[in-house]
Design goal:
The chain is α/β, with parallel strands linked by helices and 448 residues long. The chain has three domains: 124 residues, no CATH class; 94 residues, 3-Layer(aba) Sandwich (Rossmann fold), CATH 3.40.50; 187 residues, no CATH class. It is 52% helix and 12% strand. The chain contains 15 helices and ten strands. The chain has a four-stranded parallel sheet with strand order 2-1-3-4, sandwiched between helices. The chain has a two-stranded antiparallel sheet with strand order 5-6. Helix 1 packs antiparallel against helix 4, helix 2 packs across helix 3 and helix 3 packs antiparallel against helix 4. The chain starts with 7 loop residues before the first helix and ends in a 6-residue tail after the last helix.
Length: 448
Amino acid sequence: MLGKRGYSQFIRPFLYLVDLIILAFTIFYLLTDRQLYLTVFITFWIILSIIFSFYEVYRYTKIVRIISLLARQIFVFTLLIFSFLYITYSEIEFLKVVKFSIFLFILFSIWRISLHIFLKKYRVVTGRNYKEVVIIGSNKTTRRLIQFFKNEPGYGYNYLGFFTIKNEANRLGTFEDFFRYIKSTRVDEVYCSIKELSNEQMNKLVLFADNNLLTLKFIPDNKYIFSKKLEFENYNIMPILSLSDIPLKTDLNKFGKRAFDIIFSLLVIILILSWFTPLLALIIRIESKGSIFFKQLRYGADFNLFACYKFRSMMANKESDSIQAAKNDMRVTKVGKFIRRTSIDELPQFFNVLFGSMSVVGPRPLLLSHTNDYKDKINKFMIRHMVKPGITGLAQVSGYRGNIETDQDMQNRIKYDIFYVENWSLFLDLKIITKTVINVIKGEEKAY
């Protein structure tokens, strides 16, 4: 009898099957009908889906997360296809693969988002595919969770009540009553407030859950520690809970980001800089004497110094390394005002990206003077140097670009930089690039 759980046990296998059917038909009609290629590409997809946990999507997963997983899966999948075609000397054209990848991303996005929305509506309308849940503990955190269960029926949680040692009118019972309740009522998941349980009670609860096939989840009470991403590791047979490393410290993520940087920077260099640089060089030299390019030392990843390149936008001066350009700065040339406002002066940094000292997206490298002034002033400042600096960044597209006038300006910028470092994803990079292009077209007040 299916009951309120509905057909949930069949959803994930159904999802696998439909995905593979969509993939096979798309490869067959848009890429190649060769049986060997079809088999190899589907194998690539299956292997990547395991590596990237592509199908680790749950009822509480947000649509942004689904798109992020999909973007990463298809991006690396496309790189593998290119590699395979290069190794096998295939005659399949580059543009054909690009069109295939774009169509596949659009098709999968529509399919996966539609399914996600449909299942939410299905639960609300039919009352099926629900998980029965109870809570152990009564405090602000558990009350917020209760409100979530009640206000978001689309996620598919049916809240039954809570247990606590406190003498509260609405409780289902005490901690000891919980065990009797479970034996007489179907419960799928139990949420426990850690601070309301002793070690002995915790051990008893875990043992009971294991013996009764209950899913046990703990509600953290230390907001700072548990707002961080945690990893569960085993040292021999000893379980260890640790703060997880930043995403770009893993080899796979570093490889994906570096591959994207190389491809993106090569496209910009070949399609734009190859013809635009001589033209702009002529204009710069006509207006003022000096080098076409401006080189400035900045701190990069692991706090190593590197030479950051720009098109020169100022008259030659001795203060360029220590004082940022301000509004109506007399040092900025006429052509310099234009290329700074449109961010054209940053284009040579794509050579920095190609050679590995920068990334397309990352925390913007600061003046050495600013870094030395603020690295001991602002908490967690140095986290921004755990990854490569970027041509554009989350802080810049969030309104924190240009001159740093107050300590608060720098604090706001660092806040966004830290969020980026700790929450990096390929989807976030693509989002920042898109916003950057829009801002360049619109123009920015602080670009001077």
